Amino acid sequence: MTAELTEPPVNGHAQASEKESIDAWVRDIIRRKTHAGRGVKKVAIEDWKTAMRLRPQWFSEGNTETESGEESEQGFPKYCSSVVQLCGYYKRRWPEYYISVTNRIIHSWQVGSRIPEGAPVHPALDGNHRLYLQDCFDWFEKWKLPSCPKIAEMIKAGENTNQPGIDELEEEEKRNEIKHKEFIRAKERGDYIERTVATETGIAVVKRIHLRIKNEDERNIPKMCVEKLLSLNVPQESVDAFREWFTELMRSVTDRRESDMIKDGCELKEAE
């Protein structure tokens, strides 16, 4: 059984070849780390620490140097090597905005999820496992920045402006995923039913109750009143007049109830 690599491979030839070998190894570590859980082999903690030690500038959000040493006009590198880095660059690029983003969120944008209608997918790593930062900035500015609140407005409204760190956001997403999986399992057990089924069932129950009340109001109650009047020897003519009046009265009560039910149903539908 072979042991896991905890140091990058070095070929022992010229210094340039050694650098290329280490660069390739660190890029692979970053790729596996940022795509964890997508059928990619997990990265050992020691490998991740070694990669950070060998190429710290690739992991630092505040660094503006790249593998080629080139910078953009805003002082940002032209490329970054991971979406984890990109999360920090987004926050630094627009510090006046409250930007909550994680590598999982960016991955979802890259496959066309959680993006506005008509938006293209988020730029992905190229063949050299790099992201061209300006393309990412252009995409974010057009499709996501307009929905980000400004920190100054949040302060004015008394809202919390402490932006959670990437680790905190990742943990929150994991908790949400666990909750969603629990919901799916509960749904499969039959603990939940579809909204349409619940609505149809509720309507059927309300209709049945209404028909019973209607029958009670328009038939049974007038009948009991008439029987009571007859037992008191009230003249038949007076009883007949009372029956006609009282039955009509109870029908008007039913009509008002049905009108209110229709009104409440329309308001409920609008609220949905």
3D architecture notes:
It contains nine helices and two strands; from the N terminus they run ααβααβααααα. Strands 1-2 form a two-stranded antiparallel sheet. By secondary structure, the chain is mainly α. It is elongated, with a radius of gyration of 35 Å. Helix 1 crosses helix 2 and helix 8 runs antiparallel to helix 9.
Blueprint of the fold:
Layout: H1 15-34, H2 45-54, E1 79-80, H3 83-93, H4 103-110, E2 131-132, H5 133-143, H6 151-156, H7 166-189, H8 195-231, H9 236-271
Helix pairs in contact: 1-2, 8-9
Structure characteristics:
disordered N terminus, single chain, mainly alpha
Largest sheet: 2 strands, antiparallel
Beta-strand proportion: under 5%
Tally of helical segments: 9
Number of strands: 2
Unreliable stretches covering 5 or more consecutive residues = 1-7, 10-14, 61-69
Widest β-sheet, arrangement of strands = 1-2
Q: Give the averaged pLDDT, no decimals.
A: 76
| H-E string | HHEHHEHHHHH
Q: Over all CA atoms, what is the radius of gyration?
A: 35 Å
End-to-end C-alpha gap: 59 Å
Percentage of residues assigned to helices: 55-70%
What does the overall shape look like? elongated
Which class of secondary structure composition applies to the elements? mainly alpha
Give a brief description.
By secondary structure, the chain is mostly helical.
